[in-house]
Design a protein that fits this description.
The protein has 467 residues and is mainly alpha-helical. Helix content is 70%, strand content 2%.
């Protein structure tokens, strides 16, 4: 019964948010609360929620201060050269911009933290997408999928969890998987190329000067889908919604990343801010301190140095308060969902049912089975739940048929491109929140491409003889 209710709870949640019948925060809180009562454990709901909140509180704190930190870096102009450089390189070509999004997300993912990756990627690319009227779900989908492939780095989380759960070396998991992961990353770039071509066909192309121009009243925008033409027209600043269901009424105010006259710029402190950011990312990779502490210190230092006057500091914090509230609220709401899913035993029963449903004849192919199961399981449960709860059971079943734990571990990371768009991953709320994309729109657009990328990684691993 718990198995059925677990799957029903997840399905209900996904249907409600994808059909926009409920907001993600409301669905993350109310749906698990109702199902907790349905399984007869309503009296324990408070305990489950507190336990879930306690588990995710460090993540919420990290996101709160990280948003303030990177928000200040955007305000003071740290990313302006990146934005301008990408625009010049891309020549205002939608296809090149989407490919650039994939490459930027992959490069920044080297720090091993999804939230940081999405903050930097969206900060750099969002103004381009808005000014060129490109689909924002293309940006979020490509960034999430690219980060999912790179999330398999040994310091990214999943590989370390697999190594710990199966008592093997993380390098022995990751290094042999590099060719398959490289193919997966190539698939993401190819996907970006295809989606970019589609955007180019829909929008056409602007020249660099046209993309950078800011009109005083009406706004020069691209219209028509005519095969790459340069036809332009005048439209009001409050133009209609862009692709992906995101309102385009912010106009040029959202193009502030290229505004050379905004009052928050601190050109004399550019190298200080760049050095502080590099030092912060290096400290994260070296694990000198817990990430929430690093971002707390970084945000305090960035505010103090760049805005020494208290009214300016308050103004900067207030400017980013919406993002902080939305993202941290989403994380705490997700704590209700994960707390109920784990506390009621639904996750455990779902995992046991899935493992028990594997036919005996598939035993010699348990590595491939593990790779396939990693797609839905890492989407519907946390990495901790999958790697520490399910993976040892799968490895034990594989060992009975001569499949080594290393093969099981390698196959288990194939589902990470899909995992990075899971509603249980806090970083995805940073992505959709900063990009001003509805979570349901992002899910509908991204899941199919993320599944395809995960399958590419798995097939490549099989063809290369890695698993």
């Amino acid at each position: 019964m718990l198995t059925i209710l677990g799957f029903a709870m997840i399905a209900t949640f996904l249907v409600l948010i994808m059909t926009k019948k409920m907001s993600p925060i409301a669905a993350l809180v109310l749906i698990p609360a109702l199902f907790c009562v349905a399984v007869g454990q309503g009296a324990q709901l408070g305990d489950y929620v507190i336990e879930g909140v306690g588990t995710l509180a460090p993540t919420a704190a990290m996101l709160m201060f990280a948003i303030v930190y990177f928000g200040v870096m955007i305000d003071v102009g740290l990313f302006d050269p990146i934005v301008r450089g990408i625009l010049r390189f891309c020549k205002a070509d939608p296809m090149r911009i989407v490919v650039g999004t994939a490459l930027l997300a992959a490069i920044v993912s080297l720090d091993g933290d999804g939230s940081t990756t999405f903050m930097i990627t969206v900060s750099a690319m969002y103004p381009l997408y808005k000014r060129l009227k490109m689909s924002l779900v293309v940006m979020t989908g490509v960034a999430a999928t690219a980060n999912g492939v790179m999330n398999t780095l040994p310091w990214g989380g999943p590989t370390a969890r697999a190594a710990t759960a199966l008592k093997v070396d993380a390098a022995d998991i990751f290094v042999p998987m590099i060719p398959a992961l490289a193919v997966g990353l190539l698939a993401v770039v190819l996907l970006a190329f295809v989606l970019g071509r589609r955007e180019r066909k829909r929008l056409g192309m602007l020249t660099l000067d046209e993309a950078l121009v800011t009109d005083p009243e009406p706004e020069t925008v691209l219209v028509g889908a005519g095969g790459g033409g340069d036809r332009l027209t005048k439209a009001p600043k409050s133009g209609g919604a862009g692709a992906g269901g995101v309102d385009g009424d912010e106009g040029d105010e959202e193009f502030k990343g290229l505004d050379p006259d905004r009052s928050t710029l601190r050109p004399k402190l550019y190298w200080f801010n760049a050095g502080l950011t590099v030092a912060l990312l290096a400290a994260m990779i070296l694990e000198l301190m817990p990430i929430p502490v690093l971002f707390l210190l970084g945000a305090a230092l960035a505010l103090t140095v760049n805005f020494p006057h208290m009214p300016d500091q308050r103004a900067r914090i207030a400017a980013h308060a919406d993002n902080v509230l939305n993202v941290s609220g989403m994380v705490f709401a997700a704590a209700v969902f994960t707390g109920v899913l784990t506390g009621t035993g639904m996750v455990e029963h779902m995992a046991d049912w899935l493992v028990g449903a594997i036919p005996d004849g598939m035993g010699p192919h348990m590595a491939i089975v593990t790779g396939l199961l990693s797609l839905p399981l890492t989407y519907f449960m946390s990495n901790d739940g999958f790697y520490f709860g399910v993976l040892p059971v799968l490895a034990e079943a594989g060992a009975a048929h001569g499949v080594s734990p290393l093969e099981i571990a390698r196959a288990s990371i194939a589902g990470q491109p899909l995992h990075m768009s899971s509603p249980l991953v806090p970083a995805v709320y940073v992505l959709v929140g900063m990009a001003k994309v509805e979570f349901g729109d992002h899910t509908r657009f991204t899941v199919k491409w993320a599944v395809l990328t995960s399958l590419v990684v798995l097939v490549a691993a099989v063809l290369f003889g890695i698993i």
